[in-house]
Specification:
Order of helices and strands of chain B: HHHHHHH
CATH topology of one domain in chain C: OB fold (Dihydrolipoamide Acetyltransferase, E2P)
Strand content of chain B: under 5%
Low-confidence stretches of chain C: 150-154
Largest sheet of chain B: none
Structural class of chain B: mainly alpha
Number of strands of chain C: 6
Oligomer: heterotrimer
Chains: A mainly alpha (163), B mainly alpha (158), C alpha+beta (154)
Shape of chain C: elongated
CATH class of one domain in chain C: Mainly Beta
Number of helices of chain B: 7
Distance between the termini of chain B: 28 Å
Structural class of chain C: alpha+beta
CATH superfamily of one domain in chain C: Nucleic acid-binding proteins
Order of helices and strands of chain C: HHEEEHEEE
Largest interface: A-B, 32 and 31 residues
Strand content of chain C: 25-35%
Largest sheet of chain C: 5 strands, mixed, barrel
Shape of chain B: elongated
Chain lengths: 163, 158, 154
Amino acid sequence: MQFLQHFCEMLYQSSFGTMLRESNNAFSVIESVHVLSITLLVGTIAILDLRMLGLILRSVSVSRLARSVLPLSWSGFAVSVASGFLLFWAEAAKMYVNPSFRTKLVLLALAGFNALVFHTTIYRRAREWETLPVCPWRARVTAIASLALWSGVIIAGRAIAYF
Amino acid sequence: MSLHGWFMALAHSPLGHAMQTSRWGFAMVEMVHLLGLALLGGSVLIVDLRLLGVILKGEPAIAIGRDMSRLLLGSLTVMVLSGIALLSEEAGKCYYSPAFRCKMALLAAAVVFYFTLHRRALLRAQSEKPTLWPRIAAVISLLLWLGVGVAGRAIGLL
Amino acid sequence: MKARLALALALALALALAVSGTAVPAHAHHSFAAEFDINKPVRLMGKVTRIEWTNPHTYFYIDVVDANGTVTNWAIEGPSPGALSRRAWQKDDLKVGDNVVVEGYRAKNGSNTANGRRVTLPDGRRLYGGSPGDGGPGDDGTDQGNLPATGTIK
C-alpha cells in the first residue's frame, strides 16, 4: 500500500489538486454535481430493482424497463465517477486514511459485482420469467442486494465528512 | 405569528431541541433526505422522460405517471418530513438564507405544477408521437425539480 | 406479500441507518447550537501556526500561551473558502506568524476548537466568522454580525 499512499500524496500536493481544494467555487460546484447525480445513477437503478420486486411498473416487462433505464444509469455513473474522481484528487491524502471513503469504495465494488453476476446469469434468461407475476428468487435477491449496497454507498459517501 | 416567529417556534420545539443537541441526529436525518432524493429524482426522470417521448414509448404516459405516483409522492413525503427536521436544527440560518427561500419557492412551484398542468399533459400525451405541450411540461418539470436540488445544495455553501 | 416486502425493506434501511449512526463521530454538523457551546466563550490571543484554506471547511491554528507559559494549539473553524471570500475575507488576509485575537465559542466536545466569531487581524481589521441567522452571539441576521465593540468575553 506504500505506492497507493504515495500516489494519494502526490495527487493531493499537485497544483491541480490544491487549486480545487482551495477554490472559491469549483469544488462546491463539482460536489453539487456529484450529489445530484445520485438521482440519475441510484434513482434509476432503484426503480429497476423495485420492478424486480414487483412493487412498481408491473405493466412493463423487466427487460423493457432495463433497456429504457440502464442508459440513464450508465450516464449517471459516468457523471458520478468523473465528479467523484475530481473530488478525490482534491482530497486524496485525506481520503486515503478516511474509513468511510474506503467503505464507500468497497460497497461500490460490491454493487458492481452484484450487477455483473445478475447480468451474466439470471438476466440472460429474462424472457422466461419477466412476464411472471413474481420474479425468480435470484432476481429478487439481486434487487434487494442492489438497493442495500447503493444505499450504503450514499450513506458512506455522506459520512466521509464526519471522519 | 410572523414568518420569523414560525421559524423560531420550530427551532424551540421538542424536535428542534432534539436535533440541536443530538450528536448524530442531523447526520442521520440528512442521510434519509439523500436516499429520498435518489428515489424522488429517479421517479421524476422516468415520468418526465416518458412525457418527452424518450423512454417507454409503448406505454401510455398517463399509465406510467399513475404507476410512478406512489413512489414519487412517497419519496417526496420522506424528503419533506426529513427536511422539516433538518430545518428545525438551523431554522434561523435558513430563514435568512436566500438559497433556502429560493428552494421553497421552487418546491412549491414544482408540487403545484405536478398536480395541475403536469397531470393534464400526461393525459394529453399520445403514445406514438408526443405533441408540443407535453414536451414543454416535461422540461418545465425537470427544470423545477433540478432547481430545488441546486438551491438545496446552495444552502450549505453560501 | 408486497406490503410485507416493502415493510421489510424499510426496516432493513432503518436498521442500517441506526448502525451507521452509532459510527458517526462527534464532529457533526453544524448549526452553532449543535457544535459550539454558548456557555463557553473564549478570547484567544495567539500566533497563527497553520492555515488550511480548504473546502469544505477552512481552519486556522493558533498557539496560545497562558500565564504559566504553557503553549496550547487551538483550531479555529470557519466556512468554505467561497463563503469567506463572499464576506471579503481573502486567503491572504491571514498569514502564518500573525498575532491575532479570536473571539468565539468553544466546541461542545471540549476539544481545543472554537468557532471564530470575530477575528481581529494585526492591522486592526475585524472579520466576522458567523453566518446570518446561525443563532450565535452577535447574530443579527446580517453577514457583518453585531458583536459589542469591547465585548463581554473574558
